[in-house]
Amino acid sequence: MPSKGVPSRRLDFVLAAQSLFEEKGFENTSVDDIAARVGVAKGLFYYYFGSKEEMLEVIIERLMDEIDSSIAAAMEKKGLSAIERFSELISASTDVTSRSKVLLSYFQKERNQACHLAMEKRAMNMIAPALEQIIRQGNEEGVFDAPHPISTAIALAVMLNGVRRSFPTDLTAEEVVHVAAVMQHLSERLLGARPGTITAYHDQLP
Q1: Measuring CA to CA, which of 62, 146, 149, 193 is 20 to 30 A from 32?
Q2: 88 and 143: one domain?
Q3: Which of 119-123, 163-167, 202-206 has the lowest mean pLDDT?
Q4: Do residue 77 and residue 172 come from a single domain?
Q5: Which of 38, 21, 74 is nearest to 200 (CA)?
């Protein structure tokens, strides 16, 4: 059985499949397509992966790792205020998902609920602790007034994950602006921040 690591040839398959899934959709991409993109025989695909679905799980895991790394990098930046760090966190958590909508939307289908729930749990475990840290920093700086940082962080994380999961793709530019304004208002209320303080959503929504 091949290693579960990602040697160069296995990574070639992963990157080729990710590109094809984004271009054509998961269900419209065949194993033959993936092998052709890599430039190898179809049989080699099955040396590394048991199925196309298994490969997709590997790709999603890589995407979640990217989000995790982006969030960690945002939290490790020196000299940021709580407001600035909040903006960095929103940017980090939306950048990867905005580039991978096709893949993530496939996992939201009913038949993929187990994988979807696992993804949601991991996303919550990544973003809620970071939000709690930012909220505590904002309380200390006097820009937030959130007496229950953990509960507030969970509420914000639920909102952010919900938007990431099911943001409509057919909204007009004006409607997106209105959604961003509502999210700003809700976040400011949850954080106990002055109106106009949280502007991160305006540049990050699709």
Answers
A1: 62
A2: yes
A3: 202-206
A4: yes
A5: 74
Q: How far apart are CA 37 and CA 20, in angstroms?
A: 8
**196 is a domain residue:** no
pLDDT digits (tens, 9 = 90+) for 149-166: 999 999 999 888 776 666
Count of domains forming the chain: 2
pLDDT digits (tens, 9 = 90+) for 29-57: 999 999 999 999 999 999 999 998 888 88
> Could you list the residue range(s) of the whole structural domain that residue 20 is in?
7-50
What's the CA gap between 41 and 39, in Å, rounded?
Answer: 7
Tokens of 183: 């999210």
Same domain as 126, residue 182: yes
In angstroms, rounded to a whole number, what is the distance separating the alpha carbons of residues 109 and 107?
5
Query: DSSP readout, 153-191?
Result: HHHHHHHHHHHHHH--SS--HHHHHHHHHHHHHHHHHHH
How many residues are there in the chain? 206
Assess whether 74 and 155 both reside in one domain. yes
